[in-house]
Amino acid sequence: MKKFLSLACCSVMTFSLVGCSGSDAGNSASGNYVNLAKENDVISMDSRYATDGMSFEMLASTIEGLESVDADGNIIPALAESYDVSEDGLTYTFHLRDAVWSNDAPVTAQDFEYACDATIKNPKAEYAYLFGSDGACIQNASEILAGDDSLELGAKALDEKTFEVKLSQKCPYFLSLMSFPVFYPVNEEFATEKGDDYALTADALLANGPFKLESWSKGNKLVLVKNEKYWDADNVKVDGMNVNIVPEASTSALDFESGNTDFTKLNSTLVDKYKDSDSYTTVLEGYLWYLQYNFANKYLQNENLRKAISTVVDRQDLVENVLKDGSVVCGGFVPEALSTGPDGKDYRETAPEYFNIFAEDGLKAAQEYWDKAKEELGVDSITLSLLYEPSDPSKPAAEFIQSEIQKLDGITVEMVSQEKENRIEKQKAREFDMVLTRWGPDYADPTTYLNLMLTGNAYNYGDYSSKEYDAKMAEAAGATSDEERWKKLQEAEAILMEDVPVVGIFQVGGASLINKNVKGIENHAVGVPYIYKNLDKTN
Hints:
This protein is of the alpha+beta class. It is built from 17 helices and 22 strands. Strands 12, 13, 14, 15, 16, 17 and 18 form a 7-stranded mixed β-sheet that branches. α13 links the parallel β15 and β16. α16 (467-477) runs antiparallel to α17. The longest helix has 19 residues, at 359-377. Residues 1-29 have low confidence and may be disordered.
């Protein structure tokens, strides 16, 4: 069992908080509340359909799954008090603790079975792919996702307190995935009663976690209050959270200075102002921002053009002189501090670096690729669009990337700015040439990134397809040892970086201001970005 747990650990920072003293001014409820500023609103509070980090944070605050993670990123029991694993590693049997929903209904194994079935059988549930061979490897999941309705998913309630999951193959990061929101339970009776209104408002939700959603003003504010019916309520130290949606970091920073906000992230323009403050801190987050190329574009079908664009961006200049928030360069497709290999080393430490050629050398190499591309395409000049979202760090990074690409004589980059939800919709509709997009790891393993580029993956928006890459990933999945699997994954990334359907640009650094009287904000590089169960605030 320790073998499985070691791969489920992730890089995490629990803030030991220092800074200016906040107040409870502006709270929508009296009591000991923590005030958080967030730049994006929740997209969905339905665990079956949520796909973004902010939604995951609020879901994890109100609902628990079978497992959770502690401050150090280790897998710990949540609603599953214990579990057994079969000798062949293919069957997990979870034993649920006594817990209730906020309407007093017991949390049962049937809640997990219902949620699994409702997710995998609904084409609108984008994260359903995590049930299959690209994720948890649950028995029959891949076949059901492919349209075979005759099979039953290998996730069943044996009785009210026993939930069994059968796998099609060993999955070293399985327990890590069981802490991820798409695997959370849903109370069938309540969800059916609410119908299409389920999870759209505070009164159309149930909680079984540390907090419950009291109110939600879309685009403005969420108020969460302590859930007194939570099984571990005695260890929840605050009365609740006020989560204010503040798109402009400059506004939330001023709120912090006035004592009305306990936590806010900073953008690149504010780092220099606050970096010497006692309230300033930075962590390396798991999010990887990368360029994705649309293979429907006749120019971007050219490999040398993709390599030229990927090479010309001086990532070091970007993170050090533009972002300045602790972000680090990444020219591959697997970020650092994600997972540890069988040799005890971080994946990125033993894998090659790609496309990280700086300044003049990078421009020279990129120009050589571009010269080859022009000859192959029979053109002297082209225009490409770059889709991005107008928030930090995307906006300054996209503008920097535009200026770098246009150093190549004959390439014009037209900027297409879209708010996050619209940006994602355009990606789904293939309405882009290039897009600066991001991915946050769902579990602590390189496949959380590498699987995205498999033929037909829902997030393979550029429609890249490579039999060689798919075969190498299949070899990794069927490897007979951890060492062989790790080697195959690095070989797969090498194929990907030779074909360049995507290329990493930077891994996000989280520069923040935090009230010295608040503790327990846990930042995780894998899965749910921030966990708030252990919040504590002294006045």
